[in-house]
Amino acid sequence: MSNSPAWIEMSRRFSHEVISVAVAMKRFHPLLRPIVRWFVPEMRMLGRCWREGRHLMGEFTEKVNRSECTRDAVNEDVEMSEEQKPQDGHRLSLFQWYRDNIGRGEWGNVNRQAHMQLMASFAAVHTTAITLTQTMFELASLPHSSSFQEELRKEVHSVMREYGGMLEGKASVHKLWKADSLLKETQRHNPPGFASFFRYVRKPVTLSPTTHTGAITLPAGTTVICASQPISMDPSSTSYTSPEAFDPLRFYRLRDPRSGIYQFTNITLSSLPFGHGRHACPGRFFAADVARVVVGLFADGWDVALEEGQTKRPKNVVTGVNNLLPPQEGRVRVRKRVDAGVV
Description:
It is a single chain. This protein is mainly alpha-helical. It is 48% helix and 9% strand. The strands form four sheets. A two-stranded antiparallel ribbon has the order 1-4. Helix 1 (5-25) packs antiparallel against helix 3 (41-66). The model is unreliable at 76-92 (pLDDT under 50).
């Protein structure tokens, strides 16, 4: 499926339409939504994406069922060396994982397959796109944007020279410390939501007493969330200097080569956009690698700045009580560098 242009394009549109539907439906009172959903154009577009996804998933599932070897069906267009092939004979994909774990009866449910795949794509695509969009706005808005972009460029060129003129593999991407710091600071100021770490209490839980409170018992049925964004900006909760200021090299200076504590993907009690504990975002490592590569290649080939006459970063958009989106009307200027790729 990952090699299908139709599926890739449909997944992209699905992610866009989900956000559009959320924004459109929030205009109406909850009691009216079951009725007005039939008349909202965004809902019709989302339904069209869903039907297309279900159709493509049905074709693919039928193709796998007809195949004598699942690996041949899933990877017929993918050439892999012997080292790249999974040793247990299974393709390491979400599709295969789902097939192995859900059971043969449910696996044949195309609706469930399509729903799972599309929601996984949505979770991966829109959050990464939001983070990168916010990063571009922050990069363009820095007081000394040009000099910092030059710092990013030098770091990228240094890593590329070390790895044969390209960013290839985790080892090279993980050396983009300044790009990583920029992404983490951007996320600290512009998280996808003000709160994270959502938990539903299934049975009463008594929390250990603290210096501020005694023991607290959470009754069953309670929903618990963590105010992750305010915590990351609170001087009493962090060790950051001037946490209210945007400092693109904050985590670059704090970072210790022997520890990953200040990396973009790292989770601490003062850095919770990815959640915490066993249910922290499992895809954050791949998303971070993608974001580092995009920032690195962009810094190498392009300059970015605010629009002419604009001196402040456009404001974010708050939807509902928790969602924080990039500026919907904001724009930046982008210029291709003539020396792009020269390392």
